[in-house]
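Q: Please design a sequence for this.
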């Protein structure tokens, strides 16, 4: 449940600016949490007796929690006449920059933390 909460909050934070900048695009986002405080998720899941174990572990961290994750952003694009997506490198760069900027702003403003609570 805790990992799902992280994944949902990361996805929502990344989507803030993507929704605005890519109004006409069909965007899909997947988030995969890889580790929490350097411990791989697979290892954490094996230890779990219940989700309370992870929650208690995170509550014991005094200053910060480091979450390593992959954010996969896909946009379905194709020219309506040719059916081909042109300039894919520029599109990929724009999606990456927009998602990264959105995450930074959400973390800096405290909105990301609010979503987690």
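A: Design:
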């Amino acid at each position: 449940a805790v990992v799902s909460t992280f994944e949902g909050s990361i996805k929502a934070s990344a989507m803030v600016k993507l929704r605005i900048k890519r109004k006409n695009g069909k965007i899909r986002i997947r988030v995969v949490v890889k580790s929490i405080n350097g411990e791989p998720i697979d290892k954490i899941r094996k230890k779990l007796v219940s989700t309370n174990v992870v929650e208690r572990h995170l509550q014991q961290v005094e200053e910060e929690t480091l979450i390593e994750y992959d954010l996969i952003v896909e946009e379905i694009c194709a020219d309506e006449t040719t059916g081909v997506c042109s300039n894919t490198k520029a599109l990929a760069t724009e999606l990456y920059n927009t998602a990264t900027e959105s995450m930074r702003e959400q973390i800096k403003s405290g909105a990301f933390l609010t979503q987690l609570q």
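Q: Thanks. Anything notable?
A: The radius of gyration is 17 Å. The CA atoms of residues 35 and 41 lie 5 Å apart.
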